[in-house]
């Protein structure tokens, strides 16, 4: 990468913003889980206290409705509090193999340790849930790591105000100075992921942007993990029994899902495989005949979406079933399975907006090969009404083969439901094979998102008094700072 005056200035700004962050990380490591939980709750309380102000700013910058933003802010504060409850149970992160003096095996104890300062790249499509105080920030703070957020240009005033609230809340809860910081600008983001104090980075955004940052993280003299959530097509497989049982209901569900948030969800269903004797294109054309233009998050995002759609529609395999190019009305494209496979590199490129591609198949047996040809995805969905008990061996065998391919393809498999909407809990996986994420072993949503920022460490034959408190016999948190 060629250095420019702007890049050099940004690097100097990042150096200044991160001054003293290694000392902050050392202080945070000494804090007890109970202290971290109180700090997370303080952030949640502060955000709730400024709810009306924050929602008004977000609505003015993103074209999102107040009801959606309020729900998203509630999810964000609930997540902060939930992570606080999770981290106080440190026993779930420790393992002890006691010494066996007969066999001579040593005393071995395993725990986790905060990885250190974390860079978080805020997303544009969820200004609260994946923004400045969103899931990546919450999980890094829960792990005991200081956070530096690169603010998103799509909602600048909201980002600055949220950052101010977070800093004030942490200070009031006794967090070390500099526990939370933020920077702004493209060049600052590049400098941030390369800064020697940063030990891990988290990103939600485009495949191109995420891959560029991933490569920078990997090319450092001291490479760091880069947890990127990138592009995802979220294929849906409609089996004949399901669509013929409820043809209108399936179509209505698809419309709601792929137009939700003007199609700017990372879990939007972008590919829909359906039997050729089910006129899904015709039903959708009727449902969407009077559709209005959907407001997108930003003019730049709309431009990127329109360019992506034009590239897909330029394929000779694709026909427009509903909607039109050059606008953000709901757009339904259609093709056959054979044509899709013939131009798959073009047709499985993500169009981040209100568009979906219908793919007709003639035989359910074709779906296994189709799934095998797809790139990695956050989700995959199957619609079927068939009972696959012992008396229905043929159906069970076919579904099992498809399910096995989808398990290779995606991080979350959904039965008889649409992928938009991600539950935040202990069992959640929001990730998958590349390009849906850069770290297939991890999730960016749910309790286990915290694990990304915890490094395992084992102590062998350590004197009990020198062990971390959570590994000693007796009180789990005895002696820790409270």
Structure description:
This protein has 482 residues and is α/β, with parallel strands linked by helices. The chain folds into 2 domains: 5-230 and 437-471, Aldehyde Dehydrogenase, Chain A, domain 1; 236-415, Aldehyde Dehydrogenase, Chain A, domain 2 (3-Layer(aba) Sandwich). The chain has 17 helices and 15 strands. It has helices at 5-17, 21-29, 33-49, 51-62, 66-87, 135-143, 156-172, 186-194, 207-219, 240-245, 247-259, 280-287, 299-313, 337-342, 344-347, 366-373, 393-409; strands spanning 95-97, 108-114, 118-121, 147-150, 180-183, 200-204, 226-229, 236-238, 271-275, 319-322, 331-336, 355-361, 377-383, 410-415, 454-460. The strands form 3 sheets. It has a 7-stranded mixed beta sheet with strand order 10-11-12-9-8-13-14. A 5-stranded parallel beta sheet has the order 5-4-3-6-7, with helices on both faces. A 3-stranded antiparallel beta sheet has the order 1-2-15, with no helix packed on it. It starts with a helix and ends in a 22-residue tail after the last strand. Residues 474-482 have low confidence and may be disordered.
Write the topology of this structure:
Elements lengths: L4 H13 L3 H9 L3 H17 L1 H12 L3 H22 L7 E3 L10 E7 L3 E4 L13 H9 L3 E4 L5 H17 L7 E4 L2 H9 L5 E5 L2 H13 L6 E4 L6 E3 L1 H6 L1 H13 L11 E5 L4 H8 L11 H15 L5 E4 L8 E6 H6 L1 H4 L7 E7 L4 H8 L3 E7 L9 H17 E6 L38 E7 L22
Parallel strand pairs: 3-4, 3-6, 4-5, 6-7, 8-9, 8-13, 9-12, 11-12, 13-14
Antiparallel strand pairs: 1-2, 2-15, 10-11
Helix pairs in contact: 1-8, 3-5, 3-6, 3-7, 4-5, 4-7, 5-6, 11-12, 16-17
